[in-house]
Write a structure and sequence with these properties.
This protein is α+β, with helices and mostly antiparallel strands and 181 residues long. The protein has one domain: TcpA-like pilin, CATH 3.30.1690. The protein is 46% helix and 19% strand. It contains 5 helices and 7 strands. It has a 7-stranded antiparallel β-sheet, covered by helices on one side. Helix 4 runs antiparallel to helix 5. About 6% of the residues have low confidence.
Length: 181
């Protein structure tokens, strides 16, 4: 018959050979939590990248617009200017162009319309965070820009953080910037 010491040594060896079921479940839970955290961080980083890219796209569109101005006008009010912008090569390569339609990173329509002496750039389907960020970033310091949040009365000049947060309250938002020059 094995001694008590032999039986205790055998039991200790059996316990230290591998994971118990509870230890295994804890390891799996930790791995799953870490994976979700990394995926969440990547999603946030992509959204921030999309917002920065689209803010830059609006800036590029607005710098190309003077090339479409003739005799002090961009044409009749509400004339579609996206087609001439496409022909001019004025739409950034990072934007999706299908036929005569341009879309942003979130699949929303991007339109450019004449106001006569000026023009309006409109972005649809913006998530809340992107809407707030773009409203603040594009309107900041520009006295010749009027920003409209979800069709509300335009705000001339810089948009405040409170105005942007209140105006960008939907899951999908529309921003429009009207330029007077």
């Amino acid at each position: 018959m094995p001694s008590l010491h032999d039986r205790t040594a055998a039991a200790t060896a059996a316990r230290t050979r591998g994971f118990t079921l509870i230890e295994f479940m804890i390891v799996i839970a930790l791995i799953a939590t870490a994976t979700l955290a990394v995926l969440g961080y990547k999603a946030l980083a992509k959204n921030d990248s999309d917002t920065a890219n689209e803010t830059n796209n609006v800036a590029v569109l607005s710098t190309k617009m003077p090339k479409l101005k003739a005799a002090g006008s961009y044409g009749a009010k509400d004339a579609d200017l996206i087609v001439p912008l496409i022909a001019l090569g004025g739409v950034p390569a990072s934007m999706s162009i299908v036929g005569n339609k341009v879309t942003n990173a979130w699949g929303g329509a991007v339109t450019v319309l004449s106001t006569g002496a000026g023009y309006k750039i409109q972005y649809a389907k913006l998530p809340k965070g992107a809407c707030v960020s773009m409203a603040l970033g594009i309107s900041g310091g520009a006295d010749d820009v009027t920003t409209s949040l979800n069709g509300a009365t335009g705000i001339k000049g810089p948009v405040s953080a409170a105005q942007a947060a209140a105006g960008c309250s939907a899951d999908e938002n529309t921003l429009a910037w009207t330029y007077t020059s």
